[in-house]
Amino acid sequence: MNSLQKHDFIDRAVEVLKENDQGGYTIPTKGLYPYQWNWDSCLTALGQAHYDEARAWTEIETLFANQWPDGMVPHIVFHVRNDGYFPGPDVWRTGRPVATSGITQPAVAGFAVRRLFERANDKVAAARRARALLPKIDAWHRWFYANRDPKGEGLVAIVHPWESGRDNSIDWDEAFQRVPTHGVEPYVRRDTQHADPAHRPTKEQYDRYIWLVQHFRGLGWDNSKLHDASPFQIVDPGFNAILIRSSSDLADLALDFGEHALAASSRARAEKGIAALERLWSEPDQQYLCLDRVTGKLVDSCSIGGLMPVFAAIPGARAYSIARTIEKWAEKASYVVPSHDPDDPRFDAKRYWRGPVWLVVNYMIADGLVGAGETAVADRITQSSLKLIEQSGFAEYYDPLTGEPLGGGRFTWTAAMVLEFLQAA
Ligand code: DGY
Hints:
By secondary structure, the chain is mostly helical. The protein has helices spanning 3-19, 38-48, 53-64, 89-92, 109-119, 123-148, 161-164, 173-176, 191-194, 203-218, 223-229, 237-256, 260-277, 316-330, 359-371, 375-392, 412-424; strands spanning 36-37, 76-77, 234-235, 281-282, 287-288, 291-292, 297-298, 397-398, 405-406. The strands form four sheets. The protein has a three-stranded antiparallel beta sheet with strand order 3-6-7. The chain has a two-stranded antiparallel sheet with strand order 1-2. It has a two-stranded antiparallel sheet with strand order 4-5. α1 runs antiparallel to α17, α6 (123-148) packs across α12 (237-256) and α16 (375-392) crosses α17. The longest helix is centred in the N-terminal third of the chain and has 26 residues, at 123-148. The chain binds (2R)-2,3-dihydroxypropanoic acid. (2R)-2,3-dihydroxypropanoic acid is lined by residues 75, 162, 167, 191. Residues 75, 162, 167, 191 line the site of (2R)-2,3-dihydroxypropanoic acid.
């Protein structure tokens, strides 16, 4: 890419970020996602920092201003009313001062805050803002292990597929059959009015998503009960890897600020998590797999969730194998990294998290691969990501076989990741 093209991409990415900016938070895209989403915001802040550091900090601070008293950071904050999204605040009914959902999302804030701090030009402001966020992020991490790892195994479970961010992954199919659909209140989906229904989760999956929301609502959103009461308890290696990476980044930040006790407890959680991840390694598949905590069995589904642990400090031999698995998948796809193994008959190149490429996942995997010394595969992912933008614009996700743009358009975190990739290119 020449420097003229590079500048054009930067301008276009900043334009997308600014048009979705609501002042103190950013919506993922107009129409489909009109509120603040947790991991979207944290990754968006990395993009914003390229042109406005102060605004980037605000993005994460607004999210944490809506942290629950028990430490949970919700997956959606419903700052303003918008009837274009389902399920809105009237379905969740969590009773928070500013309405929020009642479940969480991948804990990428610790990673994002450390990165913002390290790169900051205004170090004084960055130190002040990072320091104020430190105990809040730590409280969220502690919440995870207290509520989602009741036996102290070192790995946390998700209790709703939306928590993973990978809503309709093939990883959930089997466990999801345990979630009933009877008693689901009538509803009208809004997502399929904004995006092609063939690229979105199915009606059956939506019924089960909503059943779980109603079930948890019936428990008064009491997080001490949700885990055990959920028929869906999955230990997702990708989700855990993000939490582990954030714990380790938080430990480093805490050390910078002389917070030794916080640093030590955070480091200990990260180390325990890395050791516990071994239980999810599949030698025949050369990647990690999800664990179904209800059955106690590994889930036979090779998805991106099993490659994402490279984002955490896994052993070198594991990172090496993951890089080879990505190379193998790349033989079947024109663009990497597909969200599911293209050799699996259940792979679907167009349907959300059942095959398409997502730039945020590419970013985290590439970052982890660089850390593990697998720079050639990381570079391939970066180039593939930029090619997708060049060909198909700032889409929500992309068909790994054709590069076709899918889902919502003019997508915030895609634009943020382009700014990040261009810096690495
Ligand atoms: C949705 O509505 O599609 C979201 O992914 C749920 O968070």
